[in-house]
Amino acid sequence: MKKMTTALTALTVTAALGGTYAATAGGASAAPGPGHRDRHDAAKSVDVEILAPARGDNAGIAGAGWFVDLEIEFNDTSLAGTGFTANQLTGPAAHNNTAPFPGSFSTGADDRMPGLVVLTSTTNSTLPGFSGPGTNLANLFNLTGVTDRSKNDVEIWDTWIVGAPIAGKDVTTTLTVAVIDDLNHDGIYNDAPAVVTDQNADGRIDRRDLEAIGVASKVETVDFRINGAPA
């Protein structure tokens, strides 16, 4: 039921945003908050689930219009510690950083979820603001909000509808998602890079590079196909 509700909400966002796309480089970080959490204590204290796309899906229309839908659960009673700064409903052009739930829209770390990294293995390196497969796409997410808060954890859902064929058409790609560890020991998951570099010098940007940086969650991956056929 939750997944269906999120999909319907995301369709509402699609109608509101129209499907155009304009990227700008960069990404903001959340301001430091209270508390200090040791990196080793925080290890794997976050659970990330990719709700969409599913493995093997043939998603989208002409390289665009496909969804990334995430459920992120923090084993933390402090909302500030998750890195989440505010709800957002955002998108390109006129929808960027506007009421009622403003959020910036660009490549890089998300100003609303600054610990999140989202990669696709086929991200185009020739588009303005993009650096190929290492580009953190998290700040392109349109809809972010808190779906559950209990005495033990905080659950946040994050959704993106891709408005342009930034990762190609008629191509199989790997979606890679993780929350970066508390690298600066400020007690907040807000240390995601704008671009993930080839940490192990193997010529690829993948889960091993995120693990080398340091992650608070498991690195989740989904292989799927981006449909190139028109509507």
TrEMBL record:
Per UniProt, which keywords does this protein have?
Signal
Which InterPro entries does the protein's record reference? EF_Hand_1_Ca_BS
Q: Which domain of life is it from?
A: Bacteria
**PROSITE patterns assigned:** EF_HAND_1
Q: Provide the leader sequence positions.
A: 1-30
- This protein is called EF-hand domain-containing protein
Question: Upper lineage ranks?
Answer: Bacteria, Bacillati, Actinomycetota, Actinomycetes, Propionibacteriales
